[in-house]
Design a protein that fits this description.
single chain; alpha+beta; Trna Endonuclease, Chain: A, domain 1; two-stranded antiparallel ribbon
Length: about 180
């Protein structure tokens, strides 16, 4: 059976994969999608195991990637990102474009999401590995304090980053005094 994309574009699966592999920007977009699929797998397992009640994926411009509800009924909004290539593990938290009338619109406001899930696949080779941080603890932008700084070093020693989703959820709920 041919995949619907093979039928739509009149190319074989191999030709489609080769086209992606030869184009840097397309590969970066694919890596973002891969990260989201791996994160959604984690959410599915968490719901099946009963430590999350529900989750919802969002594929809309200007909206965070996922929302999930904890066992205690708290909803958290998640933005999924991929680690940047480089010597140090970093994540870039900014939107692709800014509105012409507001250059600061490219920067995420703290109200946009509650936690960031960073896929470490580019550096570790394991696309199911994530690091998590609560937005409330991340540094603000120097010129726009109500927005997030663009580049964030992923360093567990600072106490901002967590290797397990349950750990970041527990920290979030503890900060709410639940």
């Amino acid at each position: 059976m041919k995949h619907e994309l093979e039928l739509k574009y009149g190319l074989t699966a191999q030709e489609l994969l080769d086209a992606v592999n030869r184009r840097f920007r397309l590969k970066v977009a694919l890596e973002g999608a891969v990260a989201e699929v791996h994160f959604e797998r984690k959410l599915k397992v968490a719901v099946q195991e009963g430590w999350l009640l529900t989750y919802e994926a969002h594929d809309l411009d200007g909206m965070h990637d996922f929302t999930f509800t904890t066992r205690s009924g708290i909803s958290l909004r998640v933005e999924v990102k991929t680690v940047r290539n480089g010597l140090k593990a970093q994540v870039e938290l900014q939107k692709t474009r800014a509105a012409k009338a507001d250059p600061s619109s490219r920067f995420y406001g703290r109200e946009h999401f509650d936690l960031v899930a960073v896929c470490m696949g580019r550096t570790s080779g394991d696309w199911s590995e994530f690091q998590y941080a609560l937005v409330a603890g991340l540094p603000g932008h120097k010129l726009h304090p109500h927005k997030l700084q663009v580049m964030h070093l992923i360093d567990a020693s600072h106490g901002l980053w967590f290797p397990k989703l349950q750990e970041v959820i527990d920290t979030y709920e503890a900060n709410l005094n639940l």
